[in-house]
Structures are given as structure tokens and as C-alpha cells.
Design brief:
30% helix, two-stranded antiparallel sheet, 117 residues, globular, OB fold (Dihydrolipoamide Acetyltransferase, E2P), alpha+beta
Amino acid sequence: MQVISSIVSLYSTSYNQIAPGIRAPKAARNTGEKSEPYGTEALAFATRRYLQRDVEFEVESADKAGGFIGSLFVNKTENAALTLVKEGLASIHDYSAEGLSWARQLREAEVGPFNIL
């Protein structure tokens, strides 16, 4: 596993990151597309919480399109995937959650009071 630490806004660099174990709704990327339910809210939350912050990213693998699959951490403690599930803005993807060391935490987060998906 490789850890990438960066201040994304400083270098104007972005990475296509896929969080293992969860599925978040997609937001429209342009006016011709339609967002999935709660996609706009999930994007707004993630933007406010993670954009232009010091983060660590643990790369587990890469997908066929070149996106990194791995966990994003803020302040070395907050797992972004867990936070999205706790806030009700993502759901568990059972197949990819099976092998995670923090799968139990993911299941506990899903039954939180804000889960709407």
C-alpha cells in the first residue's frame, strides 16, 4: 500500500479516487446530465469537508480507467468513506466492503441516525 500525502489546492492537482466499500450517488457534471438522488448533496458535503485540506490517501490498487482505489483520510484519523456513510450520503457496496479491515465500522456507520440511502 502506498500513501500519498498532498495539499491538493497548492499544486492544483487532482486524483480520480474511488473509495472502497461504499457507493455514493453521482452528481451531474454538466447541464445535460441528471444527478442521482442525493448526488448533489453528497458532492456539496464532500467538497466542503475535503477540498483544499491536508489529506492522506492510501492507495490499495487502481481500476481499469486509471482511478486510484483507496482510503482518504483527513487529519490522519477521519476516513472519508466512513464519514459519508455516517452522514447518510453513501451506502455500503457489499462486495468491495468484504475484505476491508474497517468493514465492521462501515456496517455500524450505516445504521446511524442520518442514513437516508
